[in-house]
Structures are given as C-alpha cells and as structure tokens.
Amino acid sequence: MVDFTVAVADPDTGETHQVDIDGQDANRFVGRELGDEVEGSAIGLDGFTLELTGGSDDAGRPLRADVRGPNLKSILLEGGTGFSPERDGERKRVTVRGREISDAVRQLNVTIVEHGDGDVADLLTEE
After folding, report:
1. Which GO terms describe its molecular function (predicted)?
2. How far, CA to CA in Å, does 114 sit from each of 10, 44, 66, 104?
3. Angle 20-22-23 (CA atoms, 0-180°, nearest 5)?
4. Cα(28)–Cα(118) distance, rounded to whole angstroms?
5. Closest Cα partner for 81 from 69, 70, 94?
6. Across the strands, what pairs with 4?
C-alpha cells in the first residue's frame, strides 16, 4: 500500500504543514508528475488547488523535474536539486529519481496555488 508524507507550503503565510496520507488518498498522487496541479481534497483541503513541486523516495533521493519516468537515473550534475557544488566548475554523478510519482516515493512537496475557504493550519489540524 502506498503512503506519503505531504509537506504543504502556503506561500501567503510562509508556513509549511506536514500531513500523512495513505490508501485511496495517496493513490490520487500516483502517476502524476512534478508540476501537475491536483485538488487538495486528498489531504483535507477541500476547494484548494495544489501544485506538486518536489519530493524524495524511500532512500532520500530527490525527485528531479528534468528526469522522465519514475525510475532511478544516474546523471552528471553541475548543481540544482540533488547536488550543491562547493567550488566553480565542480560536477558530480548523482543518482536521482524521475519526476513521476510512484510507490517508491515517501515524501511529496506541494505548494498551494489557489486558496479555498478556511485557514490552512486549522483545516490540517482538525484530522
């Protein structure tokens, strides 16, 4: 069974809230890609629209928006998600996961794009 921890970022307040989801709610995210917009009802935010912005898999490897599919891939990076160079010109081969959400993903990062009715903190702590 698929289960995720969803980190919900609210750009209006600058706060981030974590929500654990599983079962049918988690299955709504499987097969989606980074950059897709989903309804917030899966995590208890009815009327909200969320954008998938990132995440990591069960081993902590990041999802990268420029890698297709849900599989692992070893890519040469100069910086960005998965690698922070310490000097100019530094490159490194890093294993990352593709942009498609699969059952190997454990954490999702989402940002609220459209607000619904109610306060985000109150809606997420009611459950």
Report:
1. structural constituent of ribosome
2. 10, 14, 25, 28
3. 165
4. 23
5. 94
6. 21
**Residue 47 zone, left/alpha/beta (φ > 0; ψ -120 to 50; rest):** left
Q: Find all residues with CB under 8 Å of 86, minimum gap 6, and list them.
A: none
Please state, in angstroms and as integers, the Cα–Cα distance from residue 125 to each residue in 51, 68, 87, 101, 120, following that order: 21, 35, 43, 25, 9
Smallest Cα–Cα separation from 16: which of 88, 103, 107? Answer: 107
In the structure encoding, which two tokens stand for residue 82, read together?
């998965």
pLDDT digits (tens, 9 = 90+) for 63-84: 999 999 999 999 999 999 989 9
**Tokens 């890698």 sit at which residue?**
67
Q: What is the token pair recorded at 31? A: 């097969």
The string of pLDDT tens digits covering residues 11-40 is 988 999 999 998 888 888 999 999 999 999
- Measured CA to CA, the distance from residue 99 to residue 52 in angstroms comes to 10
CA quadruple 24, 27, 29, 32: dihedral positive or negative? negative
Alpha carbon distance 44, 63 (integer Å): 24
| Pairing status of strand 92-97 against strand 49-57 | unpaired
